[in-house]
C-alpha cells in the first residue's frame, strides 16, 4: 500500500473516531435517563394495594381496587421561559445532567438556534422551583421549561428567538396552551428571579401569539396636528383613566403580591423593561391598567 493510501486510511480512521466520540458524548447521560424513566414508569404502573392485602395496616385506605381506562398523563398548561445565566450551551447541559444540581428543563435553546430537548414534555421538569402564578403553587407540575443560552446581561440572538418561536408554536398547538400562559421565571418568582431579563423580546412574542402585551396606542396616546405630524404623550394628567389598586391588578394577572415591591419589579421586568429599580411611575400604572383586563 502506498504512503498516500496509508495516510488517507489513517485520516479516515481518525475522522470516524472523532465522529463516534461526538455522537456518544452524552451516551452515559442518556443511559441514566432511560433508567430513571423506567423507574418512574414502574411507579405509575403500580396497582395500589387494598386494606386486606396490606393486612389492614393503619395507613391503608383502599377497600377495593377497580381499574378504569378513563385517564391520561400530565398535560402542560404553561410555558415558562428562562435564561441560563451561564456561558455556553455545553455548560448548561452539564449543569442539567448533574444529579447534585437538582435542576433541569425540557428544552435549551442555544445562541445559534440549536434546540436541545432534555425531557419528554409529559415529564415533570425541575425548573420553576417554589414559583407561584395565581393560585398555582406547583408550576413544575403544570408547565414546560424553556431555557435560553444567555448570561443575563446580553441581548438574545436573532437565530435563538427564531428557534424559540418555532418551538412555542409547536407547544401551543400540541397542548392548547392559552396565549396568556407564556410567562417568564421572574413572573412566577418575583423575589428570587430576574430571568429572562430586560433584553427578552416579550412584545415580539406577544405579536406572534405567545403571551399578552398592552395596547401602546392607548397607553401612549398621540396628538395629531393639522400638518399630519404627531407626538406621543408620555405623561399627562388630562387623559381620563380608570384608576385601580396596583396590587389588585397584579393579583388578577397572576403575580404573587406577598412582597409588593418585588411584584411591581417583576411586572416592570416583563412589560416595561426599563428603570426596573425605580419606583412605581404613572407610565407603569397606565400599562398595568390597560393590561390587567386582558387576564380577566
Offer a few descriptive terms.
single chain; 296 residues; alpha/beta; Lysozyme-like; five-stranded mixed β-sheet; two-stranded antiparallel ribbon; 7 strands; globular
What's the helix and strand layout?
Layout: H1 3-24, H2 27-45, E1 78-83, H3 89-97, E2 107-109, E3 115-117, E4 143-148, H4 158-175, E5 182-184, H5 185-188, H6 202-207, H7 216-219, E6 222-224, E7 230-232, H8 246-253, H9 260-271, H10 282-291
Helix pairs in contact: 8-10
Give a concise summary.
It is built from ten helices and seven strands. With 296 residues, it is an alpha/beta fold.
| Average pLDDT level | 89
Largest sheet: 5 strands, mixed
CATH class placement of the largest domain:
Alpha Beta
Strand content: 5-15%
CATH topology of the largest domain: Lysozyme-like
Structural class: alpha/beta
- What is the number of E strands? 7
Contiguous helical run count: 10
CA distance, first residue to last residue: 79 Å
The strand line-up of the biggest sheet is 3-2-4-1-5
Q: What's the architecture of the largest domain in CATH terms?
A: 3-Layer(aba) Sandwich
Task: Please give a structural write-up.
- The chain is an alpha/beta fold and 296 residues long.
- The chain has three domains: 22-64, no CATH class; 74-211, Lysozyme-like (3-Layer(aba) Sandwich); 216-295, no CATH class.
- The protein contains ten helices and seven strands.
- It has helices at residues 3-24, 27-45, 89-97, 158-175, 185-188, 202-207, 216-219, 246-253, 260-271, 282-291; strands spanning 78-83, 107-109, 115-117, 143-148, 182-184, 222-224, 230-232.
- Strand 2 and strand 3 form a beta hairpin.
- It is globular and about 75 Å long.
- The termini are far apart.
- Residues 236-240 have low confidence and may be disordered.
